[in-house]
């Protein structure tokens, strides 16, 4: 696993309110596989992570989403938390950034509430995915087919429901990112 992502650059799109474990564990998996992880966010500086509803650590932003070039990345990770994707989906630059990965056929991994951002990017119609259960109706209304599975892969899109699913999610995202465009 140490070199599967050698030479690959993976964007992690997150902002204040990100569920810490859903950012940290996938980032560790990408780096352990030899990939280069970069935190892309709405503003420069650092973002405030949370452990459920409690503040946790802060993480330095590498580049703002307004300045980030999606073509420079090989894959995208969308961590969850409730506040994080809700803020991202309201930002036009973040929505464009997410859509660009789908338009280019690049692999994307999203966990928990992260599919909210994908709904606003208009990229879930006709896809099968999983998420935190409360997003089921939102995803169905956006044209997606929701399944209650630990991890689901649909043509390069890796989705999982919650932190308990992280082992399967991390393994699959490394595999999909190693495979490249779909």
Describe the overall structure.
The protein is an alpha/beta fold and 182 residues long. It has a single domain, classed as Class I glutamine amidotransferase (GATase) domain (Rossmann fold, 3-Layer(aba) Sandwich), CATH 3.40.50. It is built from six helices and twelve strands. The strands form three sheets. It has a seven-stranded mixed sheet, sandwiched between helices. Strands 2-4-5 form a three-stranded mixed sheet. Helix 1 (20-32) crosses helix 6 (166-179). 51% of the residues are buried. The mean pLDDT is 97. InterPro entries: C56_PfpI-like, Class_I_gatase-like, DJ-1/PfpI. It holds the Pfam family DJ-1_PfpI.
Estimated radius of gyration: 14 Å
Give a quick account of the main beta sheet: strands, pairing sense, barrel closure: 7 strands, mixed
CATH superfamily: Class I glutamine amidotransferase (GATase) domain
Overall tally of domains: 1
The CATH architecture assignment turns out to be: 3-Layer(aba) Sandwich
Order of helices and strands: EEHEEEEEHHEHEHEEEH
- Strands across the major sheet, in which order? 6-3-1-7-8-12-11
CATH domain topology = Rossmann fold
Poorly predicted parts: none
Q: Which class do the helix and strand fractions yield? A: alpha/beta
What is the total tally of β strands? 12
Judging from the principal axes of the Cα atoms, what is the shape? globular
Tell me the number of helical segments per DSSP (H or I, 4 or more residues long): 6
What distance separates the N and C termini? 21 Å
Subunit organisation of the chains: single chain
Mean of all residue-level pLDDT scores: 97
Keywords: Glutamine amidotransferase
Pfam family, one: DJ-1_PfpI
Protein name: Type 1 glutamine amidotransferase domain-containing protein
Domain DJ-1/PfpI: 8-176
């Amino acid at each position: 696993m140490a070199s599967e992502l050698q030479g690959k650059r993976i964007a992690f799109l997150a902002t204040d309110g990100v569920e810490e474990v859903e950012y940290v564990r996938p980032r560790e998996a990408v780096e352990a596989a030899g990939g280069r992880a970069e935190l892309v966010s709405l503003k420069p500086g650092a973002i405030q992570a949370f452990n459920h509803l409690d503040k946790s650590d802060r993480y330095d932003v590498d580049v703002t989403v307004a300045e980030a070039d999606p073509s420079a990345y090989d894959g995208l990770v969308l961590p969850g938390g409730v506040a994080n994707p809700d803020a991202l989906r309201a930002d036009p630059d973040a929505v464009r950034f997410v859509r660009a990965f789908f338009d280019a056929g690049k692999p994307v991994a999203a966990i928990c509430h992260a599919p909210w951002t994908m709904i606003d990017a208009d990229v879930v119609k006709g896809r099968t995915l999983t998420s935190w259960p409360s997003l089921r109706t939102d995803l169905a209304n956006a044209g997606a087919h929701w399944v209650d599975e630990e991890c689901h892969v649909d043509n390069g899109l890796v989705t999982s429901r919650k932190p308990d699913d992280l082992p399967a999610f991390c393994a699959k995202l490394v595999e999909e990112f190693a495979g490249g465009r779909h």
